[in-house]
Target: NADP-reducing hydrogenase subunit HndC
Amino acid sequence: MSLPRSELRRVSALAAVVALVVCVGCLLTDHLRWATHRTTEVQALSEAEAAAQQDAASAPALERLVERQTSQSLRLRNRERVLGITAVAAAALLVVATRRPAGTKPPLPATLDRCMPRAPVEPLSDPAETPVDPNRGDDQTAPEVDLIPLREIVDRVGREAHRLIPLLHAVQAEYRYLPPAALDELCYLTEVTPTQLAGVASFYARFRTKPCGKHLVEVCRGTACHVAGADRVLEELKRGLGIAPGDDTDPTGQATVETVGCMGCCNLAPAVSQHGELVANVSVEDLPEIIAHCLDKSKRRSGGYRPFRKKTAAPIESGTPLLEGPSGLPNVVTAGWRAGAHSTLEDYERSGGFAALARCVSALSPEEIIDQIEQSGLRGRGGGGFPTARKWRVVSQQSGEKYVVANGDEGDPGAYMDRSIMESAPAGVLEGMLIAARAIGANRGVVYVRNEYPVAVQRMRETVDQMRSKGYLGKGILGSSLEFDVEVVEGAGAFICGEETALIESVMGRRGTPRSKPPYPAESGLWGRPTLVNNVESLACVPWILRHGASSFAALGTESSKGTKVFSLAGKVRRGGLVEAPMGVTIRQLIEEYGGGVAVGRRFKAVQIGGPSGGCLPAELSDIPIDYDALRQQGAIMGSGGLVVLDDTDCMVDVARYFLEFTQQESCGHCTFCRVGTRKLLDLLERLCAGKGTRRDLSEIESLAVSVAHGSLCGLGKTAPNPVLTTFRHFRDEYEAHLEGRCPAGRCKSLISYHVTQDCVGCTLCAQHCPVAAIEPTPYRQHVIDLDRCTRCDACRTTCPEQAIVTTSPASPRRRKTQPNAA
Ligand SMILES: Cc1cc2nc3c(=O)[nH]c(=O)nc-3n(C[C@H](O)[C@H](O)[C@H](O)COP(=O)(O)O)c2cc1C
Ligand code: SF4
Ligand code: SF4
Ligand code: SF4
Ligand code: FES
Model:
């Protein structure tokens, strides 16, 4: 029978203390005894020596005395040695027994401790039954956090420092936030230091350091959801639940409302999720039901909860249509995809999967594979458009252990093609990785998937397991000498982790802070080894190129941008979804031929392309072909290929403000220009949207945008001003209107008011939907809005069957008058 570790340590510590006390006691006693007898012994020796000198017969007595004293002294010295060694050993045992195994770790740094209130937490097996009071303070008696599950978590996930992010995900899944006691214990059980833990837990947006309410509602704040009114939904939801501004949980701990970057279902915007279940196309009118649900008012007698009335509880991919365009065009990435279903490994094998890999391991040398990729003209689909073969060649020329990383972070709000690729055809990405591994001589790979895509994470993991069991991963792949294995790593809600150097830091369990280049990851990446980082779509193109020939790929697209590209359409387009089209397709073709144009009665105004690094191109430029270089000439970039369509109800100043808010929140804070410059730009745009901007603000925006672009280290800061600069260039009139206190699109809340026109038939619907009772129901009579009460949530306007509610935004006379002097 073995004692538990903590008991063993206690017993050892006790034994060590006893031994130490005994040894020190004996040493002291010996020392005292020696000190007492020393004079007598010395005196006896001198007397014996004197006697021996006078009388030779006394010599044997002297010898006996010397012998006795010598042996006594030797005995004493040996005894001292033994006691000394025993005391040192006992002291060492005491240190070991009382020390934490992870070393001399201090308690959690005060900063983290402060941001994590010591609140009581029950092991929440049934979150729906355990309300949490977020206002609990340190003074309350906090019940113990059950730390038992942590041991299982550490056994399952691993105790190495680079496992920190998966460890924190597992801890959060267990407790629904990161309780300080659990984090303390995590440091104790693993190689993670408190400093590393504090840095990582506070960096990633998906980690909660405060207790979570009984119901968790997540509202998407991505571009497509923003232009569809997510900000109003968020505001009204928090107001309806009684959540104070700046807080995310209501005072009773009933509901927590969080925001998410983008959930990857942008064609269903605005999207909200509750306990991971998606609710699509949410409007302010749907909120009473969601709020009732959160307040448990919709609890059934049976004890269960009624699901939301709104669609869709089905997996997200069934809501992502693959849009049909002109027929006869080959599909490179989406070939064989079935609507609403993902292809299994068997489907993939049946459709010719792994034939390219078989050719690469049996008939092509690594150099020949790279030549094929070069001839195809493939450029990276992750945003920069860097020639893929050039990157592969650099890594192949390096020596030692190498890595292949598939970048599936897809942080661009409004883009969802990478999610669909990972969910629908994960084996294609993995075959691309295997071919890359063969070409560059790598044995290990990582697929980095954002945490907001749980289905993609699951599909990639399942496929990796299946491929391992079928011999496509591991040693001797397809009977060759190729050895390669893959791990799927989940992000934690930091947009910047899509940037390759930040991603590498994240995989190693650290804060996702980009570093300056060179050295490029191709020379020094994961663990300082040469690392090939490619976007998942770039990798998904590779098997097709090797199966159909480089020239077939090169025959598609434009002179400088070859092949096809998967685009995602969202925003004010009639049919949102994915489109695979040859490079060079025009924006107009995508929106009109694939997406069916904008809604009847609306005017297509602009398209936002390339996410926060991209730009807003006006409808007049929608005939330019989409390729890397043509877009760059217009100040935009293709990014990952997400297109958010905007119509005449979208305000371009607000869109620019939205993107700056996004980049400001996502800045890692490393560079002053990015951290402070984007904040300052955001302040200026907020002033404009509030009708408080001046002409001097406009010139400040322009000059600051240039400084931020030049003074930032990584692509996030360098491209952050793009949405502002492109809207400035193409929609200057809207900025001018805001200077007058007008929002021509009727979007900026501070500049608009709602009115009921004579078309009102008095149906009372608007009054029923108004969340603040700003409209009195007066049946069969024209209704009136109390503008002092109105929060401009837009619910009445979208509900009115007669379109009798309009917004107006007249120029403020005061501002018109003050403008000339304002600068
Ligand atoms: C702020 C920022 C975010 C990025 N996000 C992504 C991303 O989500 N997915 C991606 O593949 N590349 C992203 N990139 C580009 C990567 O750094 C890298 O260039 C790319 O993954 C290389 O793959 P490729 O050559 O196949 O395009 C981002 C770059 C920056 C500066
Ligand atoms: S530019 Fe911004 S995101 Fe990039 S390293 Fe600097 S602060 Fe971080
Ligand atoms: S919903 Fe429209 S028609 Fe009905 S009362 Fe309101 S304004 Fe009038
Ligand atoms: S009156 Fe104002 S607050 Fe009420 S529904 Fe209309 S916009 Fe919203
Ligand atoms: S799901 Fe909301 S923008 Fe993508």
